[in-house]
Each structure stands twice: as C-alpha cells, then as structure tokens.
Amino acid sequence: MRRRCGGEKGSASVEQIGLVALVGLLLLAGVAVVAAGGDVDAGRALAGALGRKIVCAPRLPGPCRHHPLVPAYGWPLARLVRVLAPVPMALPGPSGLPLVPVDFRRCRQESCAVAAGTHLTASGRRPTAFTQVEDLRRTLGWVEVTYWLYRPGLGWERRARRAAQADVEAASGTEVLLKDDPVLVPLETLPGRDHYDFPAGERPPWQWEVGGLYPGWSS
Question: Cα angle vertex 64, ends 24, 168, to 5°?
C-alpha cells in the first residue's frame, strides 16, 4: 500500500495478531478439554471449526464458510471461475529460476515465487490467480473470465476465457474450496486494489479498470 497508509496498516496488523493469538489459546484450551473427555474426533471438529473462523475473519461480509468467489460472483459463476482456472505453470524469471504466479500482496521477490512442486513455492506459498468477471450473457450470450497472474520480475500475465450459458450449467456440480489450487482472489472485492504501488514495469493492467462490488470494502 502507499506509504501514507503505513501507520494504519501497522496498527491493524498488531490487532490482528493479538486476535489470532487469543483465538489460538482458546482453541488449545477447547481441544484439551474435549480430548480429555476421550472424544478425539470431536476435538478435531472443534479445531477445524475455530481454524476456519480464523481464516475468514478478515474477509468480506457474508457467510464465513463461503469461498471469496461466492460473494463476488454468486454460486453459478463462482463454480465456472473454478472450472476454467489455469494450471499454475512455472516460467523462467530474470535470474533463470522457475517462477509460479503468486499473491503480490505477500510476495514481490523471485525468492518467494520459485516453484517447488505442484502446490507450493520453495518458501511455502501457494500459486495464486486474481480473477475478473464480465457477465455479458444478456447482451452477447457469454461470460468472460480473466485470470491475472503475477510473477515477481516478470510482471503480469493475462489469460481470458469465454463461456456460454451451457458452460455455466455444466459447471454446476463443481466444488469451490479454499484448499484448491491455484488460490483464486476476485479483484472486484479486493480492498484497495487500485492503490498498491508497483515498479513501472510491473504495474497491473487491471488497476483502475475493475469496478467494485462492495462499496466501502473494494474501493
């Protein structure tokens, strides 16, 4: 984020860390109590439920159990976006190392984007794609889904897919899960998306071009 936001960002981080630490302690205490009663499966269920709350606490308003694609696009298009998602391929970076697409909010150096298998980078980060959807079914008969892939040192790659209503219906049985790769982040609901600073050669083509769906959250 721009430097003028630095103070607010730091305080928010401290508050978030404190909240996570508190919930973590409650989690350990709860699991210990349940496990002491001999019900190990119940302890695991409790741990899973609290873990999910930690993961989605800072996300968009709406049901915590939903993937961010769902409040952004609705279930039918969220499933389509998952079905059409590209396989996160590695490309040679400026230093020659194989780089996979990553979340620019957490990784801006080649070292954290180096491929180390199908699902993780060498620094333990998951491949990520940012998404943009234009629903033109009523006028042109199709939906355009754009995936924006960021690799440090290489900048942005755009991959666009078009789908008809029949494709949307065909994707109706698809699960939309947080654990699936690549991680999918809707630009329409990404807070502050137009205010991130990038070097001149890595400025996102989508910046200032994507309309927000949640005023107050995404603008």
Answer: 140
The distance from CA 141 to its chain's CA centroid, rounded to whole angstroms, is 28
Closest CA to 147 of 185, 121, 109: 185
Which of the two residues, 117 and 212, has the higher pLDDT score?
A: 212
Residue 158 structure tokens:
């755009």
Q: Quote the longest CA-to-CA distance of the chain.
A: 61
Q: Could you tell me if 204 and 9 are in contact, meaning their C-beta atoms sit under 8 angstroms apart?
A: no
56 pLDDT exceeds 80?
Answer: no
Beta bridge partners of 133: 145
d(CA 153, CA 80): 30
Q: Look up residue 23 and give its two tokens.
A: 């919930």
Q: Over the stretch 107-126, which tens digit does the pLDDT of each residue have?
A: 999 999 999 977 889 999 99
Q: Could you give the angle at the alpha carbon of 206 between the alpha carbons of 133 and 177, nearest 5°? A: 45
Structure tokens at 93: 């970076």
- What's the residue count for the chain? 219
Tokens of 162: 């078009």
Record the tokens describing residue 195, joined without a space.
Answer: 């205010």
Query: CA-to-CA distance for 127 and 87, rounded, in angstroms?
Result: 9
Residues of the chain with pLDDT > 90, as a percent, come to 62
Averaged pLDDT for residues 25-31: 61
